[in-house]
Amino acid sequence: MNATVTHSADATEAAGEGLGRTLAAGDVVGLCGELGAGKTCFVRGVARALGVEGRPVSPTFTLINEYRGVRPVYHVDAYRVESLAELAALGLEEYFDGDGVTLVEWADAMRALLPARTIWVRIEGVGDEPRTISVCRPPA
After folding, report:
1. How far apart are CA 84 and CA 111, in angstroms?
2. φ and ψ of 14, to 5 deg
3. CB 51 within 8 A of CB 67
4. Which structural domain, as residue segments, surrounds residue 80?
5. Over the stretch 75-89, which tens digit does the pLDDT of each residue have?
6. What is the C-alpha to C-alpha distance for residues 37 and 6, in angstroms, rounded to an integer?
7. Which of 83, 93, 114, 123 would you call most buried, defined as having the most Cβ atoms within 10 angstroms of its Cβ?
8. pTM for this one?
9. DSSP per-residue codes, 83-137
């Protein structure tokens, strides 16, 4: 597991960009951390690395935002979802097995639905605190 400490939103985005440069079609990234930890900030960096123009926003109320870059980027937010059945009904498997990269905020809420190959990112710290970003890739 790799861990990085960041001290600003820009540095958190840069950490996401670093991960984004390593992602390929079909990759799934599960993001975990408290409200305000910087999950969406990290996603912005990943999206930038994948050629997405503009500034991704959290899909808290839409559940999934889709962006176009060098490959599709699917940004999922499970914060307001009440059950795994609700998430399963979205047909997420199609995103996971497609030609894009899927980024899932509040991934702990849907761990049972995520593929074993999921790359896990945990962000610790809120407010003005530094962020500790841990990335755990599944064994190859």
Report:
1. 9
2. -65, -40
3. no
4. 26-136
5. 998 887 776 777 777
6. 11
7. 123
8. 0.92
9. -HHHHHTTTHHHHHTSSSEEEEETGGGGGGGS-TTPEEEEEE--TTSPEEEEEEP
